[in-house]
Design brief:
Shape of chain A: globular
CATH superfamily of the largest domain in chain A: Naphthalene 1,2-dioxygenase Alpha Subunit, Chain A, domain 1
Number of domains of chain A: 2
Strand content of chain A: 15-25%
Family (chain A): Belongs to the bacterial ring-hydroxylating dioxygenase alpha subunit family.
Domain Rieske (chain A): 43-123
Number of domains of chain B: 1
Distance between the termini of chain A: 20 Å
Largest sheet of chain A: 9 strands, antiparallel
Number of strands of chain B: 7
Helix content of chain A: 25-40%
CATH topology of the largest domain in chain A: Naphthalene 1,2-dioxygenase Alpha Subunit, Chain A, domain 1
Largest sheet of chain B: 7 strands, mixed
Number of strands of chain A: 21
Protein name (chain A): Phenylpropionate dioxygenase-like ring-hydroxylating dioxygenase large terminal subunit
Radius of gyration of chain A: 23 Å
Oligomer: heterodimer
InterPro entries (chain A): Rieske_2Fe-2S, Rieske_2Fe-2S_sf, Ring_hydroxy_dOase_asu_C_dom, Rng_hydr_dOase-A
Order of helices and strands of chain B: HHEEHEEEEE
CATH architecture of the largest domain in chain A: Alpha-Beta Complex
GO molecular function (chain A): 2 iron, 2 sulfur cluster binding; dioxygenase activity; iron ion binding
Structural class of chain A: alpha+beta
Largest interface: A-B, 43 and 33 residues
Chain lengths: 440, 160
Amino acid sequence: MSKYRNNPAAVRALVRETEVHKDAYIDQEVFDLEMEQVFTNSWVYVGHASQIPNKGDYYTTTVGDQPVVMVRHSDDSIKVLHNRCPHKGVKVAGEGCGNTGKFFRCPYHAWTFKTDGSLLSIPLKNGYTDTGFESCEASHGMAAVKNVQVYRDFVFCRLANEGISFEEFFGDSLTTIDNMVDRSPVGKLEVAGGVLRYINNCNWKMLVDNQTDTCHPMVAHESSAGTAVDVWKRAPEGTPKPMAVELFAPFASPYEFFEKMGIRVWPNGHGHTGVSDSIHADYSAIPDYWEAMVANYGEDRAKQILGECRHNTVYFPNMTMKGPIQAMRVFKPLGPGKTLVESWTFRLVGAPDILLERTLMYTRLINAPTSVVAHDDTEMYERAQEVLHSRGRDWVNLQRLYDGSEQPDVSTVTNGTNEWQMRNQMRAWVKFMGPAAKAE
Amino acid sequence: MNTLTEKTVLDFVYAEARMLDEQRFDDWLQLFTDDGYYWMPLTHNQPDPRLHTSLLYEDKLLLQVRIERLHGKRTFSQQPHSRSHHLLQLPTVESMDAAKGEAVVRTAFHYVETRVDEQQLYAGWVTHTLVMQDGVLKIKLKKVELVNCDAAFGNIQLFM
């Protein structure tokens, strides 16, 4: 008998106001329900329009555990299709990206599909005459995801046919995307510099949780950021501060810094650190960039755009964005104890190359499998995943600065070390578990 | 004073790998010129370390941070420590200019990194750009190209 499937009360009981039960991180059944519900009922990031600029360009990825292909259709719209041939179930578009021309062709039996998924042709089609083929699901081609939304070139989809609208789901949290795009003097981003892929042997929610965890950098990253600061202190006087030190050093900031910078939460599990200050607030000015911004936006607006210093914005369920450094991470769940972390980087179109160079250096130093900062984060997640099944304790605690009057689904700004955003995510988790977690 | 010969170059490559496996990291860092770099590209035939991201592209300062961190008391991802093993194929000297004191040497390798019960195997090619400075052979660029550089990896914590 299953413990969580068909037992919504048990699923609902995994999340208390300030605690989460260990099974939410380690149980296979809970994970399966997350894939079927959370990653189906919410709007999940798919890809960026700049990856598929021309008709027929495609990019294969996953939404939760669902293999999909994002493709530029013949009318220039962007379609998201389930990447499975309706005939024998073969993956139609191969790994990665490419251009498929006017149609996809399954490599097994050459069934072809238009880039909206509809069936175009079958070899020896008369073999299906009078077989009732028209009433089979195969005759409808590759299944297209009905709900796709492109917001300033960021492509999201909701796999469920019915559910919350894009606008209601994201609300004001879209201002983080706005700010990152506005940082381009021409208001345009391009995916650039490749994608770093990193396997973490932990539950995907630990990574999301870490995004607004401001009480760990000075502890877990003492060995990397602290050492970088120490090494730099020994440099001969007058040596210009290297970009790498500028990127590392803020991780060693004290608790007070993180408390003051603030956290903002939004409905449906979104939120961000770095409201009034952040680890990204004090980077050196880039020659010619300010001038390009002013030329396009005027001085006041340019100042406003660049004055925004948001640190990590969590887009529930599994994407996180750093506007000021033009980096994004996607946490792709592979199993209850396995997550693929993709670090994507963007070029601000019309801005000097050195901004991209800084973005790439940041993501390499902080988020790569070879990163000394990431090593210690991953060590913590993997240690947790290893021992969460302990019967010594059953709950993960998210209580810091909890106030009994805290309401779900509000927009507010609070102390930068509040764990409100972690609670916010878990409330959204219950909400988007939908029928799988409906209280009796 | 060393002279640049095929033998000194090959000996250097072997000695460098041994230094890493014996975890003599401070000595190893001294093998680099002051403007030396250690580069692990992220993609095959990646031309540019600046405007394309890499697994590693580190100057001497960053390598110093990495090494000092390995010694740190609060370096949690190294509790317990990792160990490494290099297996090198006979290096080939791609170019050598004894007069200028410059050589480029390419070596196929298998590299094992272990930590307690976990053991990971990596394979690739390392290209050393070496220069003679004051009679001592130094690394100007160590480029490590993994055969699967674009794969999703877990932690890689030591030096290939």
